[in-house]
Specification:
Largest sheet: 5 strands, antiparallel
Mean pLDDT: 97
Helix content: 25-40%
Radius of gyration: 17 Å
Strand content: 15-25%
Structural class: alpha+beta
Number of helices: 5
Low-confidence stretches: none
Oligomer: single chain
Number of strands: 15
Length: 266
């Protein structure tokens, strides 16, 4: 395992890439409403990222199971946990949820963040899933400080979600991030406090709880990308890229623009 500690200059470049991801999610939030297709959302994101001088990292991203990813964002609707492929057939409707995962490459460094949006009014049960998943992300970030261990992040996420009887997806993890989208170490959403590598200042991590309303079991569609819950129940996915610091982690990505448009916090 090779973990690259970032300099202050590199962290600043990562912040710029991640802030652009946040702005892209904010731009998409303006268009998320019943009747829009996931392909239309992808075109909006691709144009916005390129207009801001960056490259959408996901487009063409290699796949160990099949062909490269064909789009600029992942659009995961309802029971899709992650890696949903934008298409013209998936039309958002009232009561849906959609997790949009977005990555940018700007000035040689990567940004990566995900937000789960409500399409119109959703059920209270689904709102609670989103609220708990988002809270668990920040619980994990609270533990991402120098001197603690990777397992402290993982356990914080797991404990918060399982206390509400939700499932934690185990086959997919967060990850280190920097010049490459996926770097060491992997950041699971389950684990034991005090286990795993010790966190050091300068580590940059993408922490991303993937949480199911029902059973945590998942399966892959024939497209070799789309990951769904086996029981067909909804899943939520929130992600921030952070820099490990002494005392308190620094969040490099941002939900600010999305939350301003929502006018509320889940």
């Amino acid at each position: 395992m090779k973990i690259y500690l970032k300099t202050e200059d590199e962290i600043e470049l990562m912040r710029q890439a991640n802030q652009l991801v946040g702005k892209t999610l904010g731009e998409l939030a303006k268009h998320i409403k019943p009747g829009i297709t996931t392909l239309q959302l992808d075109k909006i994101a691709d144009e916005f990222i390129r207009d801001n001088g960056a490259i959408p990292t996901f487009k063409g991203f290699p796949n160990p199971y099949g062909g490269p990813f064909p789009a600029s964002i992942c659009t995961s609707v309802n029971d899709v946990v992650v890696h949903g492929v934008p298409n013209a057939e998936t039309v958002l409707k009232e009561g849906d949820i959609i997790s949009i995962d977005c990555g940018t490459l700007l000035n040689g460094f990567n940004g990566d963040s995900c937000y789960t949006f409500c399409v119109g009014e959703v059920s209270d049960e689904v709102k609670q899933l989103l609220k708990t998943t988002k809270e668990s992300l920040y619980k994990g970030i609270e533990s991402a400080v120098a001197g603690k261990h990777l397992g402290d992040i993982s356990a914080a996420v797991q404990e918060h979600c399982e206390a509400q009887k939700y499932g934690i997806v185990r086959e997919l993890t967060g990850h280190g991030i920097g010049r490459e989208m996926h770097e060491d170490p992997q950041v699971p959403n389950y684990g034991r406090r005090g286990n795993g590598i010790m966190l050091k200042a300068g580590m940059c991590l993408a922490i991303e709880p993937m949480v199911t309303m029902g059973n945590r079991a998942i399966w892959m569609d024939a497209d070799r990308w789309t990951i769904r819950t086996r029981d067909g129940k909804p899943a939520a996915h929130f992600e921030h890229t952070i820099a490990v610091r002494k005392g308190q982690a620094e969040i490099l990505s941002s939900f600010e623009e999305v939350e301003l448009l929502e006018g509320k916090l889940y």
